[in-house]
Each structure stands twice: as C-alpha cells, then as structure tokens.
Amino acid sequence: MGFIEIDGLKYFQFESLLKQPIVQAVFTRHGGVSPEPHNSLNLGGNIGDTDENIIENKRRIFASLSIPFESQFDVWQVHGTNVIIPEAPRKPLQPYDQADAILTDSPNLTLVMRFADCVPIILYEPQKHIAGIVHAGWQGTVNDTVGAAVKKMVANYGVKENNILAAIGPSIGPDHYSVRDDVLEPIKKRFGNTWQEMIQFKEEVAFLNLWKANEINLHQSGVKKIEISAICTACHTSDWYSHRAEHGKTGRFGALIKLAG
Ligand SMILES: [Zn+2]
C-alpha cells in the first residue's frame, strides 16, 4: 500500500495527494550507497557518513523521480519553529539555513527534509499551488512548528486554512515512543485538556502519540484535511531509519515535495 519501487529505491506516497499536480515521496532506506550503520540511502550529514555518499544518494533519489537534482532545497533542521521561503535552490556545498519548515510557490524548487523518528508533514494548497514540508520531533510538536508553517502559508500566499491538504508521514509510533517527564510536562502544558488524547500509560510508562499531537496542532490551525500514514519507523527498521530503535546508530531518510509546472 502506497509503496513504489524503482532501481532498488523504494518510496512511500500519500494516497490523498496522488491526484495533485505535485511530486511527493518519503524514501525508505533502500537503494543507496552508504555502508552500515547508515545503510543505505542516508541523507544525514554530521553523523559519520561521507558527503560523497550523501550526494550520490540524493542524486539517485532525484533520478528515480525524474526531477533535476539542481532543484533541491534543504535546511539544517534544529527542532525550532523557523519557517523559510527560499529564493533559489541550495547548491550541494552551499551552507544551510536553519529551519524546520520550508514553503514555496515555485516549481523550480524541490523541498527536502531528513528524518529518523521525527514527524514529516507535507503541506499542499491546491488553489494557489503552494507546497510545504515540516519537521516535528517532540519539541517541534510542543512548539507547534506545523502551525507556524500554516500561519506563514496564509500570511504570505493568502491561502485558506481549510483548503490545505496535510499528510503526516512515517515516524515513531505511539507503541514505541515512551517518554519521561522532561517531555511529558511540556506536552501537558501545551495541549491542556487534550493531552490525554496523545498520551497512553502502560505500567506507569507514558507513551506519546506524535501523529495525534500534530493532527491536533493542524486542527487548531484550521487544517481539516489530514492523512496519517500510521507507519512506525521503530517497528520497521528494515525499511526506515529509527533513532530510538537503533540507539542513535543509523541514518536519515528523505521526504520531499515539488510543485509541477
Ligand atoms: Zn512501533
């Protein structure tokens, strides 16, 4: 369901976005050149893999979708709420901007982000043809990074919140994401009465449902059309990188969106 395989690469696409004039994909770890523990389609820098491997992996990703590598725009993800609207693609060795959400109205840009348990959220507004991508771990969830992206989409492009399509991708699921008070307390503070919708206790251990929490963030921002892939990265480390399940010795998989045009 939702998976496509090409030249050894395997990616997931959101059902609800298939008919839209966009390219969207969340790539599994298959089909790249990186050795263990980053095997094999790793996009993460600064975690022990080489720049050469990462660039080759990216090149394969873009080739598999028949979109130009030169269109890539990615950021240094810092668990913040900065939303960036880039002017131009990022060249492979050009320094990164720090941000956790990217928006564009340009078909000349492919917005790319990297994940290993944190939540990828793809945004698309069909009337004005606007694309976005968001990275939300627990901090980005508490600080409502996706809400910041929606607000900027509305302010900058004049879109209506209820026209936005949102899709929550593969990330650590509620079955695997046990958290302690350092996470639980900020979640309770942020979500008030609704915190019980995203926290389940099993033998006094709290498990956080980041999918539900980001769905609530989206609802509170006025976004109603939401697909949740409900794929847990920690359950399926043969397909996905999971920072938690692989004890930090892993890579980062790529998610991307590009407007057709
Ligand atoms: Zn799981």
Fold and architecture overview:
This protein is an alpha+beta fold and 261 residues long. It has a single domain, classed as CNF1/YfiH-like putative cysteine hydrolases (4-Layer Sandwich). 21% of the residues lie in helices and 26% in strands. The chain has five helices and 15 strands. The chain has helices at residues 51-64, 138-142, 145-157, 181-191, 210-220, and strands spanning 3-6, 9-12, 22-27, 72-74, 83-84, 101-104, 110-115, 119-125, 130-136, 165-168, 178-179, 199-202, 205-208, 225-228, 253-259. The strands form three sheets. Strands 1-2-3-15-7-4 form a six-stranded mixed β-sheet. A hairpin with a 4-residue loop joins strand 8 (119-125) and strand 9. The model has no long low-confidence stretch (mean pLDDT 97). The structure holds zinc ion (ZN). Residues 173, 175-176, 232, 234-235 line the site of zinc ion (ZN). Zinc ion is lined by residues 173, 175-176, 232, 234-235.
Tally of helical segments: 5
The Rg value, from CA coordinates, equals 17 Å
Q: What share of the residues lie within helices?
A: 10-25%
What count of domains describes the coordinates? 1
SSE succession: EEEHEEEEEEHHEEHEEHEE
